[in-house]
Amino acid sequence: MPASITPSGPLKEDNAPLDELIFADEPAGDAVPASAAAHCWRILVVDDDADVHSTTTFALANVEMQGRPLVFLHAYSAAQAYEILARESDIAVVLLDVVMERADAGLQLVRRIRDELKLHDLRIILRTGQPGYAPEMDAIRGYDINDYRTKSELTRTKLYTTVAASIRSYEQIRALDVNRLGMEHIVAACAELMALHGARDVALGILTQAGKLLGQPPEGVLYCRDDGGAAAADSLRALAAVGACRHLDGRELGVQRGQQFAVAAGRALRQRDCGVDDGLLSMVFAGKTGREFVACIPLERELGEVEQRLLKVFCGMVAVCLDNVELVTRLNRSVFHDRLTGLPNRNCMVELIDKRLATSGRSESVLALADLDHFAETNDALGHHFGDLLLVAVAERIKSRLDPALEVGRIGSDIFAMLGDACALEPERIQALFREPFRIDGQDVQVSSTLGLVRLLEHDGNGADALKDADIALKRAKSQQRTGHFYFSRSMGVEIRERVRMMHALRNGFQNGQLFLDYQPQVDLATNRPFGAEALLRWRLDDGRLVPPDRFIPIAEYSGLIVEIGEWVLRQACAELMRLRAAGHRDFTMSVNVSQVQFRHPRFLDMLRRALDDTGAPPEYIELEITESMAMEEPAALVEKLAQVKRTGVSIAIDDFGTGFSSLSHLQRLQVDRLKIDRAFVTEITGSARGGSIAQMVVQLGRNLGLSVIAEGVEDERQAQILRQLGCPLAQGYLYARPLSPEGLLEWLARNRASRAA
Ligand code: C2E
Ligand code: CA
Ligand code: CA
């Protein structure tokens, strides 16, 4: 028997039980068209007994549930039912006989409906003909069955109630489902929208997603209204239009005009809501960023209540998306563009250089930085507004007079970057831009620039590195000749990067205790009796390697780190002096090197006094070594400072003496105590004619000025002998001892004492 459908027949007045079988006509027909399904409830009757089919349809004839009529589908075996269920959609309820082809055919079908066909919304009412025959309840419990009745139990009323309950339950499940699917869809749609860039893409995306949500092809227009200005309030601009509305793309739409779209959009904007008007859906997306968007979408059908609710949710979510897209766009602009000139900023230039480095064009490419000379002064003298105008004028001139193919950006307050072909960026060409004055606020301003350039062919880093290199070249150009230019060379970069690297390493090393002091004894040349030691700073890396002081001390000075390190050195040396004194070496002096940066520091004297106080070191046994070159600079200030230092009781030696150009009068005004003959002059002592040696002059000078003299770097007995003959009283050098650890110094002192006693 073919599966068939019967529209519900005339309603029978009485409540006759179903076993009173009534035969009804069964018009042939395979399926109810899907569109009809939305307006009726489809019920599948599955039973191998034809009479059951007719009684069922008769019992429920002309009945409406939730305002919709019932439509029946008929199957006479489990297999046939399966086939129908696999083919048809929107079947709400199955009235299913348990015993058919086999005793468990009905139960088997339930399992297949849920597990194989995955029809979970469908409601199932099980019926059995044999009273007392109950299938295993456990077996059916897992299959979501709405009701289980014997056929005799199901009077017409009971049948009506159970079918009605099942339909209600089906409707609820469906609504939930639509909600869930709809929400999933909206969330996915917004995620897709967020990934789009640019207002137009987003606008097209909204129309596409709305179409998907409505289950129709993309159709409609998305308008945008800027807040600001009365004129804008009246006109909407189409950001995107698709489908049959495509011709409206980009057009303005006066909301005052009487077109259907204008009316719908205007109303939606006033109500700030979405609504359907004569087959036209309008949705407003009102965000926080001031702009409003409204979509007008012609509908192919009416919308259900659930759908309308979902569309409102969609509107809210899209508004949030649009806010975020606007923010991201603005953020992008500020992250990549300079507000003042509208040119790409440093971030953007880095990207552009990266791109260029990745192309074959890099071989002929140059990155040039142009720094406006004395811009800060101009800014201070004429005001920031004037400075801003000048920068804009410079930007315009660069853009208009150089090769338009160049990438031009502003990467610092007064630094412009240019990227492009080498021939377009020859230094003379760039400099020529500044030959003519700039006219700002009716005034002519003459500006010049300094250039730093990098040839990308020679560059082996990324975009950010290239900018750094150009910056290094720029600094070099500035320090060497103003209004000049300088091309970066690899050696410059390596040297400077290495310095920066070492600066970080030194800072860490200092904090992690990698620094320590060695002490080199100083002796009386005549008796070999030690009278003091020089504290020498050491840096041992974690891998055991020593970094020579000549390498790291200039970096400590250059970075200012020497101020902190120097204080630590002084305290360490004072503390060591105290230990030596405690060990019986009471007539012993500690010499500490002080660099210029340290000495010039405004708190130097404070620092010195506190170090002496805190450690208890007697100032008369502390000597500070300053270099001769340092003693030459800023005579007046130095004289004063040295006088203050002397008042603390500490004495002063001039290190590396003979390498500078101290004038005698100058030296006399400085209150120093001792001169240290530089090692170089001690070394040459054995080679040169005795009388003319610098060492000899220094010794004489010291004698004339009443200053003590010490020769440093004495390596052999011959040097010591000559120095003695010259009348040099004191010495220091490998001949006596290398720089020693504190323990090494104590041992050395003990040995020296013993050998002299012997
Ligand atoms: P400097 O003050 O002229 O120190 C003397 C340098 O000569 C030391 O080198 C020492 O090890 C070395 N020396 C001593 N006797 C001999 C010798 O007989 N032959 C040879 N060839 N060399 C000898 P060092 O320790 O490498 O120190 C180098 C420089 O580092 C020092 O020169 C000083 O200018 C600076 N320095 C060391 N420690 C400090 C410190 O704590 N503070 C500051 N500001 N500078 C320091
Ligand atoms: Ca020294
Ligand atoms: Ca020295």
Protein architecture, described:
- It contains 27 helices and 29 strands.
- The chain is of the alpha/beta class and 758 residues long.
- It folds into four domains: 34-175, Response regulator (Rossmann fold); 178-336, GAF domain (Beta-Lactamase, 2-Layer Sandwich); 346-488, 2-Layer Sandwich (Alpha-Beta Plaits); 514-757, EAL domain (TIM Barrel, Alpha-Beta Barrel).
- The radius of gyration is 48 Å and the shape is elongated.
- The protein starts with a strand and ends with a helix.
- Bound molecules: ligand C2E and calcium ion (CA) (2 copies).
- Ligand C2E is lined by residues 520, 536-537, 548-550, 553, 566, 569, 593-595, 655-656, 679, 712-715, 733-734, 739.
- One calcium ion (CA) binds at residues 655-656, 676, 678, 712.
What topology does this entry show?
Elements: E1 5-7, H1 34-37, E2 41-46, H2 50-59, E3 64-65, E4 68-75, H3 78-87, E5 91-97, H4 105-115, E6 123-128, H5 137-141, E7 147-150, H6 156-194, H7 199-214, E8 220-225, H8 230-234, E9 235-242, E10 252-254, H9 260-271, E11 275-277, E12 280-286, E13 292-298, H10 305-336, H11 346-358, E14 365-372, H12 375-382, H13 384-401, E15 407-412, E16 415-421, H14 427-432, E17 438-440, E18 443-445, E19 449-455, H15 463-480, E20 485-487, H16 490-511, E21 515-524, E22 530-540, E23 546-547, H17 549-559, H18 561-582, E24 589-593, H19 596-600, H20 604-615, E25 622-627, H21 628-632, H22 635-647, E26 651-657, H23 664-669, E27 674-677, H24 679-684, H25 694-705, E28 708-712, H26 717-726, E29 730-732, H27 742-757
Parallel strand pairs: 2-4, 2-5, 5-6, 6-7, 19-20, 22-24, 24-25, 25-26, 26-27, 27-28, 28-29
Antiparallel strand pairs: 1-4, 3-4, 8-9, 8-13, 9-10, 11-12, 12-13, 14-16, 14-19, 15-16, 17-18, 21-22, 21-29, 22-23
Helix pairs in contact: 3-4, 6-7, 6-10, 7-10, 11-15, 12-13, 16-17, 17-18, 18-20
The structure holds ligand C2E and calcium ion (2 copies).
